[in-house]
Amino acid sequence: MVEWRRLTQRESEFTMAIYIDVSSAVHGKAGLGRYADSLARALLRREPERFALFYNRGPNTWPPEGLEWVPARSVRAGYKPWRMAVWLAHLAGISFDRLLPGAELFHATEHLLLPLRVPTVLTVHDMIFKLFPEHQKRLNFWYLNAAMPLYCRRAAAIITVSEWSKRDVVAHYKLDPAKVTVVHEAASPEFALI
User: Fold this and answer.
1) Which of 6, 85, 165, 175 is the most exposed place for a label (fewest CB within 10 A)?
2) Residue 19: which H helix or E strand, with range?
3) Which residues lie below 8 Å from residue 177, measured CB to CB, with a gap of 6+?
4) The domain that contains 174 carries what CATH number?
5) For the chain, what is the domain count?
C-alpha cells in the first residue's frame, strides 16, 4: 500500500529531487543499513534541498532517527512481497514513477532497483550470492540470480564498493566497465586512530 500524507510547505515547493532508498536503514539491516543511513546523512549535509528519501516500511518503522524532516515517500509492504512486486513490474514494463513525485534521479542502495523512467543508480556491494551460493538462503539465491542481471542492465550507473566488486559485476553481467564506478566505503567518523 502506498502511503501518502499532506505535504509540508517545504515539500510542496520541492519540484526536483534525488531520491535515496533508505529501506535497509529503516529495517536495521546491518551493513546495508549503515551504508544507506550514512550516505543519506552525508548527502543531506551537503545539499539538504536536493534530496528526498524513499523506503519500504513495515509496521512500526519510520525514517531513520533525525531524518524525519527530510521529504519522504514510502510504500507499506512486506520485504519479500515488495521485492517480488518490483521485479515483476520490471518484467511487465510497469513504471513506479508515481511513487516518487518530482524525481530526477533514484539511488538504490541495495539489491532492489525500482522500475522508473528517470535515471537510476544501483549500488552493488558484492556478488556473494553468485560467488558463494552455499551461503545464501534458497529464495534469496533464486531472486538475486534472476533479478540482478536485469537491474544492472537497467541502471543508468552502478556504484561498487571495491575494484574487485566492479570486476565481478562487469564479468558476470558483461557490462561496459565505464558504467561502473568504484566508491570506496570509509570508516565512520566515530572511529579514530589510537
Assistant:
1) 6
2) strand 17-21
3) 166, 170
4) 3.40.50.2000
5) 1
The residue assigned the cell 529503516 is 26
Q: Is residue 99 included in any domain, yes or no?
A: yes
pLDDT at 4: 45
Within a domain: 187: no
- Cα-Cα-Cα-Cα torsion 171, 19, 73, 100, nearest 10 degrees, comes to -90
pTM: 0.87
Q: Which three cell numbers stand for residue 187?
A: 570508516
pLDDT value at position 157? 98
- Nearest CA to 126 out of 57, 35, 39, 189 is that of 35
Q: How far apart are the first and last CA of the chain?
A: 49
8 A C-beta contact, residue 147 and residue 140: no
Print the domain residue range for 35: 12-182
Average pLDDT for consecutive 10-residue bins of the chain (194 residues)?
48 72 82 88 93 86 85 88 95 96 95 96 95 91 95 98 96 98 85 78
Copy the grid coordinates of residue 54: 524513499
The owner of cell 558504467 is 179
- The answer to whether position 190 is within a domain reads no
pLDDT at 171: 97
Strand partners, 180: 158
Task: Identify the three-state secondary structure at position 30.
Answer: helix
In a domain, 86, yes or no: yes
